[in-house]
Amino acid sequence: MSARRTLVAALAAVALASPLVAVPAVAAAPSASVRHAGHGDAARLNYQKAVAVRVLKGVFEEGDTEVVDRYVRPDYIQHNPLAPDGAETLKNLGTVIAQQFPDAKYDIKRVTSEGSMVLVHSNVVLVPGTRGTAVFDIFRFQDGKIAEHWDVGQNVPGTTANGNDMFSTESWPRTEQPGPRWLTAYNKKLVTRAFDQLLVDKDLSAIDKYWGPEYHQHNPNIADGVEGVKAGLGAYFEQFPQLKVDPKRVIAEGDLVAVHSHYVNAPGERGQAIIDLFRVRGGKIVEHWDVIQDVPEISANDNTMF
User: Fold this and answer.
1) Looking at the DSSP assignment, which residues form a beta bridge with residue 137?
2) Neighbouring residues of 50: CB distance < 8 A, sequence distance ≥ 6
3) Which is nearest to 157 in space by CA: 181, 133, 191?
4) Whole-prediction pTM value?
């Protein structure tokens, strides 16, 4: 198995692991105070973040497969096309990663949780000194354990059209932490409307309505700022007039809102799995990250990438 296939399959097998950056202290490891339900919604959401981080860090950085038995359901459902269903597959892949890439790191940039879902945005580096892969992982929890997983991965390029890397935070305040949770519902509704108008309906006027003038772009192929996104998406819509964007799930916390979608440029194509992550400040979208992966022809499971 190539390094790339091993990486993607390992990602598929659950979530991410790595030194957690800018995540509440509870996310360092599940503690007794949040181990069970009944301590409030905030504690449950923090617990889900903690479990996702603990499993991935344990499996892929420490080779500790016991965390899978502790925190992953045996009937774990996998949507990464390179990995079969089941917790045992995750354990096996974790062992392979530990043996073949002992210095592998999951550099986690931001983690959010809403409802039963956790979203993790990371730079996964198998070999020190390489740029690695930009990855979004989504996990669904059931009864306190990881029950299902989706992911999207893209190689990190050497240069970008906007001068920003695929991970940094450029809008103020420059923190990877999601904003206050009381903002979640408002920002989720705003991004959903903006996404539907701009990408589902292909209406560029949505940018004037929902995007802030200080907008920062992290898609490596689109120029920075409002004019950059207008030009980039305008050219995209012209090139693919039959583009269909089908949003599958939206996950939000505070000022961060992620949309997981199936983009199909033309009828009959398999399309791409894309996760777009937006940051909202003062009622406007001010920053955007995304990861794009082609949908393959065959899969090791029967679940599709969506």
Assistant:
1) 120, 151
2) 26, 27, 28, 29, 30, 31, 34
3) 133
4) 0.88
According to DSSP, the residues that pair with 275 across neighbouring strands are: 260, 291
Nearest to 196 by CA among 103, 82, 299, 276: 276
d(CA 120, CA 243): 27
Q: For residue 12, give the nearest of 286, 273, 209, 280 by alpha carbon.
A: 273
Report pLDDT digits (tens) over 198-250: 999 999 999 999 999 999 999 999 999 999 999 999 999 999 999 999 999 99
- Angle of CA points 156, 162, 167, to nearest 5°: 45
Among 65, 43, 42, CA closest to 54: 65
| 213 Cβ neighbours under 8 A, 6+ residues apart | 225, 226
For the segment 147-199, what is each residue's pLDDT rounded down to a tens digit?
999 999 999 999 999 999 999 999 999 999 999 999 999 999 999 999 999 99
